[in-house]
Amino acid sequence: MRYELDTDGAWLVDPNELAQRLGMATSHLLSQMRRGLVSTTIVSGSGLDEGRSRITVQAAGTAWQGTFDDGGTLMSEVSF
């Protein structure tokens, strides 16, 4: 899994990969997103974590969190 930033600086990820990590069908995730029921938090690292980002996505009673390096490569992840 990788993330990219669009020209406005928004976080982009393949919805199929994200849905898989959240344990739901892609169509369900996209429906939840359209209805405003998906929450995303992005925290930029500092100090020893400079250049890393921790991204948390919550949807339909489940959550996934990934830590990405400055190139957008997933370094670690956890579901809860």
| Total strand segments | 6
Q: Strand order, biggest sheet? A: 3-4-5-6
Q: How many strands, what sense, and barrel or not for the largest sheet?
A: 4 strands, antiparallel
Given helix and strand content, the structural type is alpha+beta
Enumerate the spans where pLDDT stays under 50 for 5 or more consecutive residues.
Answer: none
Q: Report the span from N to C terminus.
A: 18 Å
Q: Helicity range of the residues?
A: 10-25%
Number of helices: 2
Order of helices and strands: EEHHEEEE
Mean pLDDT score = 92
Strand content: 35-45%
What spatial form do the alpha-carbon principal axes imply?
A: globular
**CA gyration radius, whole angstroms:** 13 Å
Description:
The structure is a single chain. The chain has 80 residues and is α+β, with helices and mostly antiparallel strands. The protein has helices at 15-22, 26-34, and strands spanning 4-5, 11-12, 38-44, 53-59, 62-68, 74-79. Strand 3 and strand 4 form a beta hairpin. Helix 1 (15-22) packs across helix 2. It is globular and about 35 Å long.
